[in-house]
Amino acid sequence: AALFVVLIVGLASWLGFRVAKAARPFSKGLTLAVIVGIVYSCAFYFILLRPTTNDHVYPTPGPEVKYWQLPTGSKIAYVMSPGTGEHKSTPVIMLHGGPGFPVLPMFQAYPERMSDTLTAIGYDVYYYDQLGCGFSSRLDLRTGDNYTVARQVDDLEAIRAAIGSDQMILIVFSWGATLASHYML
Question: pLDDT for 147-159, tens place per residue?
Fold first, then answer.
């Protein structure tokens, strides 16, 4: 990997020098070439070569955070707000945006929730961090696992089965609309 990074730095520096070849004097062109090479190399490393980990940069999950271990292999973090009053049998599932936007760390930080109105009229409301987000598990890309819409759809179907409901109401935000569309297809 180190040899590959050196080759990329060299190639990026050469390209930077070619772009800056008109710069005079020669030292300015060489300086620009080295800077361009370093920038490209850092971007290359942090985007493609840095190993993926399951280290979370989020706070520790609160006691309300539970986990589904799905048959898809995903470990999905969720919070369920139970309905009060006359209970409705159909659960509400919130599908967050992103992809990759964590919802549960924010859920802990802001106690005022959209679900308060829904729970007050009897709906059980589930918030969950999609695979690779927030408190949910990450895939190890080095093993060939990939984040795909199909995987997210499979996870959502497994969640429906885990809840034990034949139907569910989906409330979506941004990317969640794409996920819901694919799920309904």
Answer: 899 999 999 999 9
